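so im writing up the methods section and need the Leucine-rich repeat-containing protein 14B record in one place, dumping it here so i stop losing it
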Amino acid sequence: RTTMKSLRFISAEAFVSNAEFARKSLGAVAHDLFPLLFKASYLLEQGEVIHDLVENWPLFDFNMGKLLGATLDYQEDLSHRTCSVCLESCLTGLRDYVLNQSSPYMKKLRVVDLTGIKDVEVQFCKCKKTMGRWARTQLLSKLCSELLVYLQKAQCNPGTFEISIKVLIDLFVTERNYELVVQALLKKCSCPLKICCVALRSDNLTLQKFFYIIKLTDSSLLRKLEIVHNVHLEMEHLEMLLNSIHFPLLMSLTLPARTFNVRRFTATDEQMLTNIGEKIGEMTQLTELSMSFSILTGRIQKLLSPLKTPLKMLDVSNCSLNHADMAFLANSFHANHLEALDLSGHDIPELYPSTFFKLLSHCSSVLRSLTLEDCNIQDTHVNMLILGLSPCQKLQEFKFIGNPLSSQALKHLFTFLCELPMLKNVEFPVPRDCYPTGITYPIDDASLCRFDHQKYERVAEELNLILLQANREDMKASTPLFGSYDAAVQETNNELGAYLIKSFKETLEKFTTSFNKMS
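--- predicted struct ---
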């Protein structure tokens, strides 16, 4: 699919394609053409031109999402291209904007917004080398620290110290880039480039380091907070966090696995949970909440009822919800507003079929994403599922891997899914009949790949043929055995893998020591 380009855009491409000529000629370029030249340079991956455009940026703001998004001159959105060449040129250009004392333009730049960059699985840039969120955090922090060191050593124009540019960014902090980020945030007041964190993802950090980094970011600006995987945040730490820090703009909160475990609750814990619910209720902007792999049996109402704003996204996968929890969700005011819902890991047909379908009917007019992985949905439930999904005409994504469905049932379901006009992404399970007889669900990791691959390929082809015959080439169907693509996990998997090996080694050593003492 080719996107139409205006004559202006074609001319811009021609201008920046000769990097040497373009760089020499920038001084004669009208200010309002800089955004056009920036997008053309980004498309052609002209790193040197990008650097010089940013170094001499003549406008008050520099917003990556708007600059790379659909424009009248070129409709294609390039914000999902996290091209390493382009992004590094952008950020070094920003540093040199501060240092450049011979720029012909008066320095007007006040706000740089890097939050519009989207990390996706498939990259279309020629270099095929991406710069993810973690690497952008690392590079910007490094450039801010280097800039300060240079300014302190060099004889700079006094005006350089008066430059103050807010750099809005989604930070991603792990053990490996922690020190660098801390240094950049500590010296924010002295640095002309002022990191403003609007979204924070933290992984593989000790609690002490997590609390320190969150105190260094300005929580009044924070719109999204993700505390994931290897940050061992439990309920008492969450209460401490919410009591000590105010999040007036927070729209999205993700808590790590095992934050809550009601099975070992005392009366004090019940009070603590009530306090947490009240604190979450004070977040008047909160519309997205993810608390997967916690044990929350019978406590959903306590956590969610204080909320005054309806949730648009809720992830309570593998939270051991009971009938009371599901009944609360189905009857709550959140139900009519849910655009994304994840109930994976619950035996829906067995535990609360009618309550689940009531919830589904309430959110059907707005629901865009539904995830029902490992929910024990079997062949006998498919007709009921089709009935429940029929009103969900805005559904764009449906994920249901890990369910014991046969090839025949999947074909029946796919024939129906073709009728959902906005559906684009389907993640379906390996058919039950591709596994050896007697396989039990949920399937453990060791058995997950032990299926008849040739038979699976034949079934997958038949399912794709159903899409093709219904003229639904716009739908993508896949079976990601080990979960959907996650850009953040993909980027830091080496660090997280090393951490897991270290943890396993330490556990093994403790076990050996205890065993030896017993002996």
